[in-house]
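Narrative of activities, Objective 1.

The group set out to show that a structural description can be obtained from nothing but a protein's sequence at a throughput compatible with the screening campaign. Below is one input-output pair from the validation batch, recorded exactly as produced.
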Amino acid sequence: MYREGVSEPRALLEGAFRAAVAAVDPDVAIRPHLPDPPSGRIVIVGAGKAAASMAAACEAHYAELGTALTGVVVTRYGHGAPTKSVRVLEASHPVPDAAGVAATDEILGAVAAAGRDDHVVVLLSGGGSALLCAPAEGVTLEAKRSVTDALLRSGATIDDMNVVRRHLSRSKGGRLARLAAPAPLTALVISDVVGDDLATIASGPTVPDPTTFADALDVLDAYGIADEAVRRVLRDGADGGREETPKPGDPLLEHCRTILVATNETALAAAAEHLRRGGYVPHTLSATIVGEARDVGALLGSVSERVWRLGEPFSAPCALLSGGETTVQVRGSGRGGRNGEAALGFALSLPAEAPVWALFADTDGIDGTEENAGAFVTPMLLRTLDRRSARAALRANDAYGVFADAGHLLLTGPTRTNVNDLRIVLVSEGSRVRGGAA
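Output recorded for this entry:
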């Protein structure tokens, strides 16, 4: 469909990504859900990669109404935004640091100080679990860092990680909301969790927690994590020596409401519309894809090849979209996040002649710990890829280097929002062959 050297598919992919991010921009997402001004103050607190931009949107809204406002939020280093009345603090993600602990103490103090005539507005987004870091009694910051790092390296799902986090914290699992009583509380949530479970997003600081200390111990067992200091705290809780997180039906949470304002599906719908206008028929496969990143990429490559070779289950030209959050089991010491690994797994699954373009990217603008949002796969890359070296890079968790050398990184900087990953594949019309996909 496109001649060699024509850049329309890659530009279309980047445009679709930017349209998706714009659809979940905090200023668009939260304004319709902000509570009416109370007789007292609006007290804004929050945590996550979008916390600063969410706070700025709140400020702008209440400034128009002349409402008294105060507050503090914590976001990832480099993800700040200018505000006037709300303090924006920055801390480490995904492994917590002392700045996160200090910021969380300040947030908890602001919530506890809210009066009956105030209204607490809690702003939550992806990254909130690591940033809202208030270790429980008997848990050191180093212990939390150690167990978080071990869970990340084990390939643990975000759901399992957050079961542990909720039970090692003074803020998570509904504890922050319980602290606000009797002030009414509204939490506005941008979801970075597959399935949009409110108890999992930022480890659910404003909703009841259905899990227990015993469940947290089971997670450590499942991933072979033997941190004895953490296990001692969790065993104490499982034996009744510590107060559990608030459970469904807790009367101290009756003053709270938690609203989901933006999701991966929101972003996918905007990307699909952009692609439709660009001449591709979009097909959204799923917003809830999980699994090992390289395997997800390879599976998507197989589907794409079947579309190209057989015209099944869709006819080319078309766009295949999916979302969710994959995981990476770290075995090597290379550079690269889950989207880079998925993109490389995708490229290695396809033959050199495939008329396929793709973008694998994280909506927060940062794939893992690198500066790129994700990576492109193009026909040029497929033709020139040294597959032996690429497989070695994948084994070393070094997908970043492959795409950096090819000039195929997507660089956006922090988007200050986060609804997980987007994977977009453009399949052009190409020669068909008999038989199944290779």
